[in-house]
Amino acid sequence: MTNNQAKRLGELITEALELRKLDVKKLSELTDIPVHYLTALIERNFSKLPPSPYVRGYLLKIAQVLRIDNNILLRAYKQELQVQSLKVSGPKDKLPSNRYAFKKTRKKTIIIWFVLILLIVYLGWQANHFLGNPQIEIISPAADNLIVNTPSIKISGKIKPGDKLMINNEEVLTDKTGYFEKEISLQTNINTIEFKVKRFLGKEIKVIRQVIYQP
Fold first, then answer.
1. H-helix or E-strand containing 28?
2. pLDDT tens-place string over residues 157-188
3. Where does a domain end: 50, 67, 83?
4. Which domain holds residue 9?
5. Staple 63 to which of 55, 68, 126, 142, CB 3.0 to 4.6 Å?
6. Which residues sit opposite 99 in a β-bridge?
7. Those residues with Cβ within 8 angstroms of residue 115's Cβ, 6 or more apart along the chain or in another chain
C-alpha cells in the first residue's frame, strides 16, 4: 500500500474541508472534537487518539458536518488501522472501564452516607425511648401528706409510653398515651404509696406520696 493510500482518511477530511471552506479549528467548533484529535486523524497519528469506539463517534460527527458518507470515513479508518496493525473496533473493544466508574462510585458513596446518617438520627431518636431518665406526672394524690376521709383513693398520673410503672411493687399498665389510674384501699392513719418508673435500658426513679386516712 502506498503512502497516498495510507493517508486516504486524512485526504478525505482535508478535501471536504476545502470544499466547505472550513479549517480544522472551525470543524472542532462544529463537532466539539478537540483540535489535536482532528489533527491526529488527518495526519494519521492514531497513537494519539482515544480508543476506537470514541474515534468512530468522532468520524460520524465529522461526516455529518462535512456531508460525507459516514461509511466511507469508517471504512478508510478501518483500513488504516489494519495497515498499522492497530486494534479494530469489534466485540472485544470496550470503552475505558472507568468511564463511569467514578460517577457510580460517588453516587453509591453518597447513598451509603445518607443511609448511615438516617440510621444514626433514627437510633439517636429511639435511644431516648430505651435510655435516659424516665419521668412521672402524678395527678392524684396531687400533694404529699394528703388527708382524706374515705377508705380508698383513686391514684392517677402519666408516664412516657414504653416505661414500666410499679405502684407499691405492683405493675400498673398504662394506655397508649402513658396515662394510668388505680384504686387503692387505705388503712387508718398514714398510707405510703410508692411510685417507681423504669426505662427499658435506662434508669429508675422513685416517688413517694403519703396519704393520711382519718375516718
1. helix 24-31
2. 999 998 999 999 999 999 999 999 999 999 99
3. 83
4. 3-83
5. 68
6. none
7. none
